[in-house]
Amino acid sequence: MNLKKEIEDIKNEISRELNLSTSKKEIENIRIKYLGRKGIITQKLKNIKHLKDEEKPLYGKELNILKLTIEEEIAKRGQEITKTVKEEEQFFDWTMPGDRRWLGHLHPLTTTMDEIVEVFLRMGFTVELGPDVETDFYNFEALNFPKNHPSRDIQDTFYLENNLLLRTHTSPVQIRVMEKIKPPIRIISPGRCYRVDNFDSSHSPVFHQVEGLYVDENVSLSDLIGTLDIFAKAVFGSSTRTKFVPHFFPFTEPSAEVLVSCPFCKEKGCSTCKHTGWIEILGCGMVHPAVYRSVGYDPDKYSGFAFGLGIERVCMPKYGINDMRLFFENDLRFTKQF
To answer: Which of 130, 204, 199 is nearest to 170 (CA)?
Structure first.
């Protein structure tokens, strides 16, 4: 076969295959086909030894030139494909329908806490925060808890080393603030709390609270009732009624639990309110004189009230949630509803 005709046919075939190639993978297959260890050009170079001596130099020279030409063509075609792919990636078709992207949003507990904080901010309260790890003094002693109070037991409180513990309420923030500044004081302290408890539909060892404190001269029980009545109507609706039931807390006297009319049955009775028509949402009372003395206040000069409410306790009836565990399971089927 004529040498020039053979080389020309190989060139034409390679050019045809390269023009038809559309990816780097196809180009690599062409390279292997012609220049690989068992490729067409490689085999022809190996067969030179079988030619006549006068044919070997010319045949070897032409094949090496062909090999270099193929390598250049392959490299050139590879660059063209790379450029085309980049241009296609940069192209955006505005007529195509968009991809729906799921956006994150606030957890219902966060939403409820923000709403509660906003209500009290409008009433002139400021936000104060404190550490999750507290001492016995701030968590119990300064708040007038007796030494034998059940809440001090290890069955109720998470104790750490060096007389430290995980706070069981956010009331210690009130003590820390009163130690630093003199009345008038009007603060709320939102945050996470911890108590030894079973994890079930109505209890959790980790929960959230917002506690409030108002101390000044001539603060009365009617101020407390009016403040919490405004809060209940702001959160549950203007038609909400409140009921104050006598109770006991070591750091307030007198003390009360606050109930709101059930927003679901309108006091007729349902499973949410346990057929009573009322839902308990918080505890409150006038600050005990012993608390004032622990921070150096004169109980004969100052008076005030304190209250504390569980965020979960407000959030559940507000959104009709019947199992507290749903707040902590991170199930998207639940959180996407809010």
So the answer is: 130
| 34-42 contacts at long range (C-beta below 8 A, 24 or more positions apart) | 34/10, 34/70, 35/67, 35/70, 35/71, 40/10, 41/10, 41/66, 41/67, 41/70
Contact 250, 146 (CB under 8 A): yes
How far is 143 from 123, CA to CA, in rounded Å? 25
Which residues are bridge partners to 134 per DSSP?
165
- Using the CB atoms, write b or e for 203-238: b if 16+ within 10 Å: ebeebbbbbbbbbeeebeeebbbebbbebbbbbbee
For 6, phi then psi, to 5°, come to: -65, -45
Query: pTM for the whole thing?
Result: 0.66
Of the candidates 211, 203, 228, the residue with the CA atom closest to the CA atom of residue 172: 211
Terminal CA-CA length for the chain: 81
Q: How far apart are CA 259 and CA 317, in angstroms?
A: 12
User: How many angstroms separate the CA atoms of 304 and 252, rounded?
Assistant: 10
Please name the residues in contact with 301: beta carbons below 8 A apart, sequence gap of 6 or more.
Answer: 217
pLDDT digits (tens, 9 = 90+) for 112-156: 999 999 999 999 999 999 999 999 999 999 998 988 888 878 778
- List for the chain the helix, strand, coil content (%; round to 5): 45, 20, 35
Q: What is the pLDDT of residues 236-280, one digit of tens each?
A: 888 889 999 999 999 999 999 999 888 777 778 777 778 888 888
